[in-house]
């Protein structure tokens, strides 16, 4: 399996999994690749680091050394905690979405948790909005000016249409997913 870093002409970055380099070239030539964010068919390969399986070369530190390192870490954390000023302790906690995921997760696991939360948010938007498709700009104006009942909608709009809506005082948000796809979200 070949995993490639890809980007569209708008520089949206994503991965593609292919059986071989020839498979990637074939799909590119046939126009089968598109950006999952904006559906742009101009996809290019980005540089990526090779994956080297060197896990067998790593040696875990002996148990007493690990315990000693953990004690030193805890001591340093306690010392740093005693130096905090009162205003820093009294500061409000950040919203739940901005708080750290879980202590002890490696960066790849943190990314997976964040991606899962993003997908949940996108699915919630899909479940609680009406899809008006390519008529998004017109329907948003009708709602804004009281010509249609007020409700939450989603759909497709060009960059120019979105800018025009913003100029009229109608707020729009671009979602990080191509919601026009009929299949399940990945």
Describe this protein's structure:
- The chain has 186 residues and is an alpha+beta fold.
- Among the domains are: 2-45, no CATH class; 101-175, no CATH class.
- It is 39% helix and 12% strand.
- The protein is built from six helices and five strands.
- The protein has helices at 21-29, 63-82, 86-90, 107-127, 136-144, 159-167, and strands at residues 2-8, 13-18, 43-45, 130-133, 153-155.
- The protein has a three-stranded antiparallel sheet. Strands 4-5 form a two-stranded parallel ribbon.
- The longest helix is centred in the middle third of the chain and has 21 residues, at 107-127.
- The protein is flat, with a radius of gyration of 24 Å.
Features:
single chain, 186 residues, alpha+beta, 3-stranded antiparallel beta sheet, two-stranded parallel sheet, 39% helix, flat
